[in-house]
Amino acid sequence: MRKLSSGFSLIELLIVVAIIMIIAAIAIPNFMRSRMAANQASAVASLRQICTAEVTYASTYGTGYSSLLSYLGPPATPGPPTSTAADLLDVILAGSGNSSTKSGYTFIYSVHCPNLTCDSYQVNANPVTPGKTGVTFYYVNETAVILQNTTGTATSADSPLAG
């Protein structure tokens, strides 16, 4: 008499592994596209936050726009907001100095401050790794119109973001 053995044969296991690999080959590129789209949406939302924070900063402190992006962040120690720690942005987006990195994008802030009053600013949001963390470059200034470019760093000459 032969004993019946239970379990899977090698062929059955190889077929299951092949099916899993096919599903992964289809799913991973879709996941990466979704991640890039989420990073880009986060970058646009962050630019809108910066614009709102700048308007609030200018109206609160009366010195024009902030001279550093980090001035829009929270104070290092608990206490009331000040012109150098306005508590208008989260600590990640405010960064240190005039740049920060959030959700796969680097934000670069520059400002024009003649006579101690900052009358204009601009922010570039560039993917940390173009093609992997995002494919669109963004630009915004005191007009609060977000501009985009898919080939390189966005400037004031690029087209506005649709929608």
Report on this model:
The protein is an alpha+beta fold. The protein has one domain (10-160). The chain is 34% helix and 18% strand. The chain has two helices and six strands; from the N terminus they run ααββββββ. It has helices at residues 10-61, 91-94, and strands spanning 99-102, 105-112, 120-127, 137-141, 147-149, 159-160. It has a six-stranded antiparallel beta sheet with strand order 1-2-3-4-5-6. A hairpin with a 2-residue loop joins strand 1 and strand 2 (105-112). The radius of gyration is 24 Å and the shape is elongated. The protein starts with 9 loop residues before the first helix and ends with a strand. The model has no long low-confidence stretch (mean pLDDT 93).
In which order are the strands of the major sheet placed? 1-2-3-4-5-6
Give me the secondary-structure category: alpha+beta
Anisotropy-based shape? elongated
How many helices does DSSP assign? 2
Order of helices and strands: HHEEEEEE
Radius of gyration: 24 Å
What average pLDDT do the residues reach? 93
- Give the domain tally: 1
Helical amount? 25-40%
Total beta strands: 6
Q: What is the distance, rounded to the nearest whole angstrom, between the alpha carbons of the first and last residues?
A: 75 Å
Question: pLDDT below 50 for ≥5 consecutive residues: which ranges?
Answer: none
Please summarize the sheet with the most strands.
6 strands, antiparallel
* Residues in β-strands, percent: 15-25%
